[in-house]
# Entry
Amino acid sequence: MEKIMIHGMLISWNNLKNKSIIDIIKNNMKFIKVQTRRDI
# Structure
């Protein structure tokens, strides 16, 4: 039972990490778009 719980936690943590990385990339894309608009 403990192994399954830990495995599930690791999977969910990896999913959270992937989501946060995607969010960071999206935020960076927005920031870059804003920066380029300001430069123009």
Q: What stands out?
A: Helices lie at 2-39.
